[in-house]
Amino acid sequence: MSPAFMRLWGVPVLLGILTVIGLVAALLGDGLLDYVSALALGIPVALGAWHGLRKQGQ
Questions:
Q1: If you ran DSSP here, which 8-state letter would residue 31 be given?
Q2: Is residue 58 pLDDT above 70, yes or no?
Q3: Are 56 and 27 in contact (CB under 8 A)?
Q4: Exposure string (b/e) for 30-52, b if CB count within 10 Å is 16 or more?
Q5: How far is Cα 33 from Cα 10, in angstroms, rounded to an integer?
Q6: How far is CA 16 from CA 39, 43, 58, in A?
């Protein structure tokens, strides 16, 4: 993949992969997978909130 593609789509693809991992972990397991799903689903939410609040304050 080209550097321009990764610069534009790298973070959105990573957030999508984290979301899929979190959803699959939440559906398939208990115990440790609950923590994996909470972390994997919480990271995109936290980054989105941080980005939204950061832009709003400028």
A1: T
A2: no
A3: no
A4: eeebeebbeebbeebeeeeeeee
A5: 25
A6: 14, 11, 27
- Render pLDDT for 6-48 as a digit per residue (tens, 0 to 9): 899 999 999 999 999 999 999 998 999 999 999 999 999 999 9
Token couple for 27:
């559906």
- Prediction pTM value: 0.81
> How far, in Å, CA of 42 to CA of 54, rounded?
18
- The token pair that represents 55 in the structure block: 């832009």
Tokens representing 13 are: 């693809």
